[in-house]
Every structure is written in structure tokens, then in C-alpha cells.
Amino acid sequence: MDGGHADAGGSDETGLLGCRPRRLGRRSFLAGSAATLGAFGLGGCVTSDGTMLADAAKVYGPIPDEKFPIPAVDISKVNPKYYRRTVRYETKEAAGTIIVDPRNYYVYRVEGDGSATRYGANVGRDGFLWSGDAYVGRKSEWATWTPPKEMIRRQPEAAQYARGMPGGLDNPLGARTLHLYQGGAYTLYTIYASSDPESIGSGITSGCVGLLSQDMIHLYARTPVKTKVVVLPA
């Protein structure tokens, strides 16, 4: 499987049963729960940290017109290497393919010209990592989240949502969700919108992959059903 690789300049150095982090407090809900890069200005050389932060503040600003208005991201809680940007990325995968790199906490959208749009991500914690090929079987906005039975057995406090948790800012799936399928069957894995900036760059979920809400909305709008998703080994 050829997932591709980023060049040195572009590289700054998923879920068995649902998306929930280990604990079910408010931060866990948010952890489990726009503008283009051209406006971002991070595709090439950044003139100063101040410029980077100013551009990031624009890209990760509030989205007031959503069904549930999305607040601005506190970018001070995100390592700048996880800001959305365009990077060199060589791969044999077709344009539009999504490649998840859990080892480095990145999600790439292949652009087809030797480059990719790169997003910072959170991924599955130890014991919940996975790899392989999948595809986007369906898409949803402000989806209802229902914990799997296996999760309820592990975390009985999730039982209160056995009939579903309505969409909203506290819902683990957030504003947008890409549901991953293999061979016609739903895997229970998703790429979802996270409202928790501190989760980016960490392994906290039960295998799902989370992007900041502003990044997820950006990716979602460019991702049709049937899009191929490649999850690299961690």
C-alpha cells in the first residue's frame, strides 16, 4: 500500500468501537465531538510567528452561521505544526484520496499535483489503532451519536446516550462526520469534527480521527461519498 510521504519541508516533526475518549466529562465530549489555505498563507515560507498566528486566527475564527454557531479555536492551545497548510506530498493515490497518518497526527487530502492539504488530527489511543483501506460510505452534519454496546460495557456512564445523543457542540461527532466503510459495511470508524484544540496531536479516541471543526468543515466540503481513505500503520 502506497500512502505517500511528505518532503522534509512539509513534515514537522483509528477506532474499534466508536469515537469516545476514555472519560466522559465535558472535555471528553469535546475531544470526541471556512476559509481556504490560500487565505491562510502557510503553503510556503512564513515571514514571522506573528504572521502565522494572525493568519491562523482568521482560518480558525468563529463560524456563526452554523446550525449551532461554532466558536473560534483557541489557537494558543494548538501546536503551529498542526495548522492547516499545503505541503509537498508524493503518492500514487488519486487526487481527492484521504490519507491518515496516525503516527504523526496528520490527515492529508491528496491534491493530485505532488501536493496535499494537511490537517492536524487526534487519533486512536493505544489498543484502538488500526490501519488499512476504507471509503467514505456516508456523510452527516451535526450527527446523532450513539455509543456502541461494547463501549457501554466498558464505560457504563455512556448508557445515558444508548438511544442517541442529539447533534450539538457537546456531541462527540461535532459539526461534520465522514463515516468509513469497508466492503459495504460500516466500520464504526469516523473522521469527525473536534471542538477540543488540546486534543490535536494526541491519541485519545477509540479509533476515530478528529480534526478541528474549521478543518473538518473544509475537508467535508471537498469530500464526496465513495472517496477512498487510507489509514497508515501507526
The DSSP helix count reads 5
Radius of gyration: 17 Å
Kindly name the structural category. Answer: alpha+beta
What is CATH's topology name? L,D-transpeptidase catalytic domain-like
Overall mean pLDDT score? 83
Number of strands: 12
Brief descriptors of the model:
single chain; 234 residues; alpha+beta; L,D-transpeptidase catalytic domain-like; ten-stranded mixed β-sheet; two-stranded parallel sheet; 5 helices; 16% helix; globular
Brief digest:
Pathway: Cell wall biogenesis; peptidoglycan biosynthesis. This protein is α+β, with helices and mostly antiparallel strands.
Polypeptide structure, described:
The model is unreliable at 7-18 and 21-47 (pLDDT under 50). The chain has a ten-stranded mixed beta sheet with strand order 1-2-5-4-3-12-7-8-9-11, with helices on both faces. A two-stranded parallel ribbon has the order 6-10. The chain contains five helices and twelve strands. The two termini are 14 Å apart. With 234 residues, the protein is α+β, with helices and mostly antiparallel strands. It has helices at 26-32, 37-40, 49-59, 149-154, 213-221, and strands spanning 5-6, 85-90, 98-101, 106-110, 115-120, 123-124, 132-141, 176-182, 185-194, 203-205, 209-212, 228-231. The protein has one domain (5-231): L,D-transpeptidase catalytic domain-like.
Layout: helices, strands, pairs:
Elements: E1 5-6, H1 26-32, H2 37-40, H3 49-59, E2 85-90, E3 98-101, E4 106-110, E5 115-120, E6 123-124, E7 132-141, H4 149-154, E8 176-182, E9 185-194, E10 203-205, E11 209-212, H5 213-221, E12 228-231
Parallel strand pairs: 3-12, 6-10, 9-11
Antiparallel strand pairs: 1-2, 2-5, 3-4, 4-5, 7-8, 7-12, 8-9
